[in-house]
Specification:
144 residues, alpha+beta, 5 helices
Length: 144
């Protein structure tokens, strides 16, 4: 069964191990680690060196590293976006929960209700909601 070597690259900084994909005629692909053991020339190593050469392996290694770093940065960016979205959703839900409370819903204190709407953090939502409760509910007011 014939095979084709695809994208060979260095697997370590010492350049003693090569990673390569072997694509077989039946469509199977296998990623292999190729090295020379005890200076016995591995036939796959020899084929790669004869076909591709050190410069090509260096180039493939650089390209693979660059591609890996790009994918890693994209994943980090997506994670940051997802985290920001989750924080905004949590804040929105907290505000909605505050406005579902009868005492907030029925309050005529537009200033504090606007502060709840414009709150930038969950703590602000909780503080302004508590303040509104204290102003609206005579039982919640501290006595002197």
């Amino acid at each position: 069964m014939a095979r084709k070597i695809i994208n060979p690259r260095w697997a370590n900084d010492e350049k003693t191990v090569i990673l390569a994909t072997f694509r077989y005629d039946d469509g199977r692909e296998l990623v292999a680690s190729i090295s020379n053991v005890n200076d016995t020339l591995n036939p796959d190593w020899k084929e790669i060196m004869d076909t591709f050469g050190v410069e090509h392996l260096d180039q493939n290694t650089g390209d693979a590293l660059e591609s890996h770093m790009k994918r890693k940065a994209e994943r980090a960016e997506r994670a940051k976006i997802d985290q920001d979205r989750a924080i905004k959703e949590q804040l929105f839900n907290l505000k909605a929960e505050a406005f579902d409370m009868e005492i907030v819903k029925n309050s005529k204190n537009r200033d504090i209700k606007n502060k709840i709407r414009r709150a930038a953090t969950p703590t602000e939502v909780l503080v302004y909601t508590a303040l509104l409760h204290m102003l609206e509910d005579p039982l919640a007011k501290p006595t002197a």
